[in-house]
Automatic annotation (TrEMBL):
It comes from Streptomyces sirii. Transmembrane segments: none annotated. PANTHER family: EXOPOLYPHOSPHATASE, RETROGRADE REGULATION PROTEIN 2. Residues 41-326 form the Ppx/GppA phosphatase N-terminal domain. InterPro entries: ATPase_NBD (IPR043129), GppA/Ppx_hydrolase (IPR050273), Ppx_GppA_N (IPR003695). It comes from the Bacteria. This is Ppx/GppA phosphatase N-terminal domain-containing protein.
């Protein structure tokens, strides 16, 4: 299989763009998740990821799952349509070799192989699935690159739909990675049907459940004094924007989230019906139902890791993949991982 470097040398406009001074490296990733399929093409310009092309197709895969987590026919067809649309959105754009991957909604589905085979057969795109620990590792390398390689000890927290990822380390690669089945979609389905806490007792019960699960997981890293803690994912971003809307420090709105802010947000989210949460600042309509579960998970994670405040990082697994496929990280080279 061609590497990014091979493509840059041989195919102008497909894997690289010629400018004065040489070829510019480009890489593409198609991220198929519960709420969207997002094609992202970037190039490495100086020390930043410069966007080249982006196309998002909205999905509602959580609405097509059965009780066993299988993706139904409507869900499979929507994935096929989304992948086909994303990869052909601009017929004049010569894409680099795109790494297409599916997150936990497909990865954890009992009919995963059937879904992947159907998408490949109808679109020509093979969806890879990354283990949760690999998602945690990629989120860590992305966060470290975002902050700067000399940042020192780093703890990274990431909340997905099916799982949460935790990674910590002091160098370019994490020393500890954990992936736990405590994602916002999963906890909503299992503990808060419809996104509703039916009573204060039920809210306390979900809190106890999350604390128990996190306390029973061996090796969950705790933040050292002075260690920088970054929170990735849309869940953390939206909670920070919601909490920051009432902040007395407008310049920091959405950039930081503290435990007191998070607990105040939980009280509001628990009192607001899911179909009205999309009107709250920072909370998107398509994530409104699982926003309460996401806030409870964030609280449990921060407590388990001994964290009073997190800094919001806009980069996560997708950016980690892009950085590694561009080969811009120390000791990192473009690589493919096998499906499944």
């Amino acid at each position: 299989m061609s590497t990014i470097s091979d493509i840059m040398i041989t195919e102008r406009g497909r894997g690289g763009e010629f400018r004065e001074g040489g070829w510019m490296r480009q890489a593409g990733v198609l991220d198929v998740g519960c709420h969207s399929a997002l094609l992202t093409v970037v190039r490495w310009q100086g020390a930043i990821l410069e966007p080249v092309f982006s196309h998002k197709v909205r999905l509602r895969l959580h609405k097509t799952l059965d009780r066993k987590g299988r993706l139904g026919k409507a869900g499979v067809k929507s994935v096929q349509r989304a992948v086909a649309e994303a990869t052909t959105a601009d017929p004049h754009l010569r894409l680099p070799e795109v790494f297409a991957f599916a997150t936990s909604v497909i990865r954890d589905a009992p009919n995963r192989e059937e879904v992947i085979a159907r998408v490949a057969r109808t679109t020509g795109t093979l969806l890879r699935v990354l283990p949760g620990e690999e998602e945690a590792r990629l989120a860590y390398v992305a966060a470290r690159q975002w902050t700067g390689c000399a940042v020192g000890p780093l703890l990274v927290l990431d909340i997905g739909g099916g799982t949460v990822e935790i990674a910590s380390g002091t160098g370019g690669q994490p020393r500890v990675v954990r992936s736990l089945p405590l994602g916002a979609r999963r906890i909503t389905r299992d503990c808060l049907p419809g996104g509703i806490a039916s009573s204060g007792w039920r809210l306390a019960e979900v809190r106890r459940h999350l604390r128990h699960c996190l306390s029973m997981e061996p090796g969950v890293p705790r933040a050292a004094p002075g260690q920088r803690v970054l929170a990735c994912s849309k869940t953390f971003e939206q909670l920070a924007r919601f909490a920051g809307a009432a902040s007395d420090e407008p310049r920091r709105t959405g950039r930081q989230l503290t435990l007191p802010q998070l607990r105040a947000a939980i009280r509001v989210l628990a009192d607001v019906a899911p179909d009205r949460r999309g009107a709250l600042p920072g909370i998107s309509r398509h994530r409104a139902e699982q926003s309460l579960a996401g806030a409870l998970i964030a609280e449990g994670l921060m407590e388990a890791c001994g964290v009073a405040s997190v800094e919001i990082c806009p980069w996560s697994t997708r950016e980690g993949l892009l950085l590694e496929r561009l080969g811009v990280l120390d000791g990192a080279y473009p690589h493919d991982r096998p499906a499944g």
